[in-house]
Design a protein that fits this description.
The N and C termini lie far apart (83 Å). This protein has helices at residues 2-29, 34-54, 60-80, 166-177, 235-239, 252-256, 260-265, 274-289, 307-317, 347-361, 366-371, 374-378, 398-404, 435-443, 447-453, 474-497, 524-527, 540-559, 598-605; strands at residues 84-86, 102-104, 107-110, 112-113, 119-126, 149-151, 188-190, 198-204, 211-217, 243-247, 295-305, 327-331, 412-417, 504-509, 579-583, 587-591. Helix content is 38%, strand content 14%. Strands 4-5-8-10-9-11-12-13-14-15-16 form an 11-stranded mixed beta sheet, with helices on both faces. The protein is of the alpha/beta class. The chain has 3 domains: 2-80; 93-159 and 194-207 and 223-279 and 313-406, Rossmann fold, CATH 3.40.50; 414-605, Rossmann fold (3-Layer(aba) Sandwich), CATH 3.40.50.1820. Helix 1 packs antiparallel against helix 2 (34-54), helix 2 packs antiparallel against helix 3 and helix 14 packs parallel to helix 16. The protein is globular, with a radius of gyration of 27 Å. Helix 9 links the parallel strand 11 and strand 12. It is built from 19 helices and 16 strands.
């Protein structure tokens, strides 16, 4: 009997320690506030006192009931003390030095300097009126002027978008990106608002004029993303003598909702491309104001990755963008296919989706829709993740515009990664037996030929994730999806530009590393020189490759030709058709790895 009484406190302390460790992990990964941590400690301390004093010597049921009560209080505290919204500072460190005053069309503003004073950052500059109230689902309007000196030292709230719980993001950082850092000072989340049409400028400090300009459009399937992702910060490129601009735009239902009544009320008959119209308005603002930051409005390059690259492609053929830029950079996406696989849809489908949203929300007219809270609209289950032909921002299918020579880019740098589709295919198991059938949505009657061109093989162990069911043909399946969804558009883009004499430079990113590897978006920190964001995932070879890739990028932005002294020659597509420059363990010119699949996709595109 005495031995039994001695064992019970031991069991309690084991449960207490495990509960404490689990609670601390959840509060850390969930980015809970400091007051939440303080109440957590009080709750755990109260549990110890209650168990060792008031409940000492009682039976099992009171003690177990106490444990359940503690768990319930812990759950409630976890939910109530979650992180609060906060705007992201433009530079790290306390009390950064302010820049001098810059005067733009709307008024005066100041930014902040990096710690070494080499780069100046101007964050959260409005380029349009807030698209709220009556301006929801209307073409963006020029920004209002302001009085006094506007302080631009924090990034504006990101556009409305669904987002994961911080706990999920932390787990993704640990197991997916391998970049999590334990801290008690990051217990906040980025601010979010429908009022989000702002841009950011990085420029080298000093008085230089006529500097080349890069305008970057973030990706995120047109439904998520921020203009201030650390992986595409303009700081390092600004050190290389470039003025970098990153822009936010309306996303999801706010940016790509369509309706006949919306088209009817528009003076241009447009609907469904509000996010793209935001980007065009931002380019107009850059054209008018970038000289105030030392940039050359006659030497602007637009760039984007993933859905941002699809937008770049659309901007290249938009009748509204002539004269707003001279060159384009597109990473891992485009809409040049006759029937693009993603990020583009017929107007009929866009309006059908708009009708489904109205029905689900019970909003019969525009007045009711515009009166709905942004949070309710944001949570619609119907996807608004595609551009469309509206006859205004996009006059026709992009491939038809290219066929007519109605495009604006005078040079193109583009490319794709070897494991582009892996993240998007993670939930599917593909074996040799169902391999061809799995390819049918992308290759139609030529699925068997595609499977023969890439014989069934499993995924590389490095790119096999715990939640991926895999399969004996999963590696080959992912490759064929990468070819269709991503690489084909770049192949076709180069093919469409070749008769026009527009120089095209295509890369193929294959460098493995400890972070994202060569998955979708894996090349971004290399081009932007931001490997330090996750320095533990990269070694000296990665930093060397990043320096080379960034120099190509800088040369292209400055001159339209990525080649330069000391760099391996990057042939233009007309000189080496069907060849790409591989960025991997080596930098070398190789055949495009998907040449056997492109003719099959061509036939699939001509099926109707």
């Amino acid at each position: 009997m005495k031995e039994r009484k001695k064992r019970k406190p031991v069991l309690f302390w084991i449960v207490f320690v495990l509960t404490t460790l689990l609670s601390a992990a959840l509060f850390e990964l969930g980015k809970n506030t400091l007051w939440g941590w303080a109440l957590l400690l009080l709750l755990l301390g109260g549990w110890v006192l209650l168990r060792t004093r008031a409940l000492a010597g009682t039976g099992f049921l009171p003690r177990f009931g106490c444990f359940l009560g503690v768990l319930a209080l812990l759950a409630g505290l976890f939910a109530l003390s979650g992180p609060r919204e906060r705007r992201v500072p433009a530079v790290s460190g306390r009390d950064p030095r302010m820049t001098g005053i810059v005067t733009v069309a709307q008024g005066q503003l100041t930014g902040v300097c990096t710690e070494d004073g080499a780069v100046e950052v101007f964050a959260g500059i409005p380029y349009a009126k807030p698209p709220v109230g009556e301006l929801r689902w209307r073409e963006p309007q020029p920004p209002e002027p302001w009085e006094g000196v506007r302080r631009c030292d924090t990034f504006a709230p990101m556009s409305m978008q669904p987002r994961n719980h911080p706990l999920v993001n932390s787990l993704m950082d640990i197991f997916g990106y391998h970049r999590y850092k334990f801290s008690l000072t990051d217990n906040w989340i980025e601010a979010m608002s429908e009022d989000s049409l702002y841009l950011n400028v990085w420029r080298p400090a000093g008085t230089a004029k006529k500097l080349p300009v890069l305008v970057y459009i973030h990706g995120g399937s047109l439904t998520t993303g921020q203009s201030y992702y650390g992986e595409h910060s303009g700081e390092v490129l600004a050190r290389d003598g470039i003025v970098v601009v990153s822009i936010a735009y309306r996303l999801g239902v706010f940016g790509f909702f369509a309706g006949e009544d919306l088209a009817a009320e528009s003076p241009n008959g447009s609907t469904g491309n509000y996010g793209l119209l935001d980007q065009i308005q931002a380019l107009r603002w850059v054209r008018e104001n970038i000289a105030a930051f030392g940039g050359d409005p006659e030497n602007v390059t637009i760039a984007g990755e993933s859905a941002g690259a699809s937008c770049v492609n659309a901007l290249c053929v938009s009748p509204l963008t002539e004269g707003l830029f001279v060159r384009a950079i597109a990473e891992s996406s485009g809409v040049t296919a006759k029937i693009p696989y993603h990020t583009f849809r017929p107007m009929e489908r866009a309006q059908e989706t708009g009708g489904e949203i109205r029905k689900a929300l019970g909003a019969s007219d525009l007045e009711a829709l515009r009166a709905l809270p942004a949070e309710k609209l944001m949570n619609t289950r119907f996807p608004n993740d595609s551009l469309t032909v509206d006859g205004y921002a996009v006059a026709e299918q992009p491939c038809d515009s290219y066929a007519r020579g109605a495009n604006h880019e005078q040079a193109l740098l583009q490319g794709f990664n070897v494991h582009e589709a892996d993240f998007f295919c993670m939930s599917r198991k593909v074996d040799a037996e169902n391999y061809a059938e799995a390819l049918r949505p992308m290759y139609g009657d030529w699925a068997e030929a595609a499977a023969a061109a890439f014989p069934a093989a499993p995924q590389e162990p490095f790119y096999h994730y715990l939640i991926d069911p895999g399969g004996t043909a999963k590696g080959s399946y992912d490759a064929c999806v990468s070819a269709a969804w991503f690489a084909y558009s770049h192949y076709n883009w180069a093919r469409l530009l070749r008769p026009r004499g527009v120089p095209v430079y295509t890369y193929y990113f294959t460098k493995n590393n400890g972070g994202m590897g060569c998955n979708h978006a894996g090349e971004l920190p290399y081009f932007f020189g931001k490997l330090d964001r996750s320095s533990g995932n990269y070694d000296a070879r990665d930093y060397s490759l990043s320096d080379t890739m960034r120099q190509y990028y800088v040369n292209f932005v400055k001159t339209g030709d990525p080649n330069g002294e000391g760099l391996p020659a990057w042939p233009e597509a007309a000189e080496a058709p069907d060849r790409v420059l591989e960025f991997g363990a080596e930098i070398r010119v190789i055949p495009d790895p998907y040449l056997a699949l492109y003719p099959l996709i061509d036939r699939f595109m001509e099926r109707e």
